[in-house]
Amino acid sequence: MIKVLITGGAGFIGSHLSKLLIVENIPIRIVDSLSPQIHGALPEGLDWLADERVEFIRGSITDRQTLEAALSGITHVIHLAAETGTGQSMYEMARYNEINSQGTALLLDILANRRDHGVQRLILSSSRSVYGEGAYVCQACGDSSRRIFPGARSAVQLAAHQWNPQCPHCEASLVAVPTRENDPVRPASIYAATKYAQEDLVRVACDALGIGYAILRLQNVYGEGQSLKNPYTGILSIFSTRIRRGLELPIFEDGLETRDFVHVEDVARAMCACITSPEPVNKVINVGSGIGTSVTDVARLLAISLQRDVPIRVTSQFRLGDIRHNVADITLLRELVQGGPQVALADGLDRFTAWVLTQPLPEDGLERANAELRARKLMA
Ligand SMILES: NC(=O)c1ccc[n+]([C@@H]2O[C@H](COP(=O)([O-])OP(=O)(O)OC[C@H]3O[C@@H](n4cnc5c(N)ncnc54)[C@H](O)[C@@H]3O)[C@@H](O)[C@H]2O)c1
User: Fold this and answer.
1) Overall fold of domain 4-135+178-375
2) Is the pTM of this model over 0.85?
């Protein structure tokens, strides 16, 4: 009989996943600290945790006793609990390492040392950020099939508004192509470094312990229920608050940077498939839509969906550690989940904004988050 432990299950992705598993009649237990940065000082909207089909433990994955209790009687673990702010991670290294890397190590340490555990599979929510810039080609060099993996853009490059990574051979602007799971990994932020550390820990430990695993590299996940209170991550949340307040939308760089937006329901489906598949996945899988959308376009679509006309201002400002483009190759995801991703961006945005309008209007924390980055010379 399957019983699933979801760490960080009260968060954005965790709550969708939990509700999906409940519908599938799969018993779940959640361990979550209800971090104030994500849920606010007085967490709201978590009534569903009291559902009789949900076992909920409030506690941190950095606490051995909490994790030991949470793992009792569990067959499958979906490990979501993490700190997730890329910019914030660049000046809160120790906290990000403690929760993301050490928290994962502790989970595995318990599995290695508690012989009576029943865990058969572990699913890790990793991040596309581990790729750094990801895959590009040069259309000027003559061989546009040769894949190039540029390093992080330097402060000097960005200050000169040289937004696109350059070809190491002819210095032309490179063109992004879908990044594959076997492409090189190059984390460009502490957050990404901790996500990659999680991947290595899970792969090595699960292989050694004979536990099946899946490492899902999530792209930009969006949808109903994403934190509207966390100013450090979630571009659609941040923009939706500004649109509701009638504030302009400042877009970094030249606004043409792209992201691969995937609806949270498609992510939950992929995680569920890793639980129910006849054999464990035992590999890395990109979870995205396979479509790159520019940040300017998504800002426009969001304003249209919210039926508000706010100025969109391309600022030429930049953050160190940000990637330029992102689109995932989702061939493996299509093998895992029949039909692949189901929610088109326009539909997903309408669902997201319909939900946003039912929520209290949050403070706009963007200026504060940017000021913290500027003070540390991580944004200009
Ligand atoms: N949302 C995205 O776009 C995205 C993209 C790539 C990867 N991911 C990964 O997916 C996972 C879930 O992301 P999310 O968007 O749902 O984030 P979220 O912030 O909404 O949820 C994270 C949950 O973890 C809990 N948590 C934090 N620290 C904890 C601790 N020490 N002990 C127990 N619980 C703790 C929080 O209270 C929260 O409920 C994370 O591992 C994240 O790195 C998310």
Assistant:
1) Rossmann fold (3.40.50)
2) yes
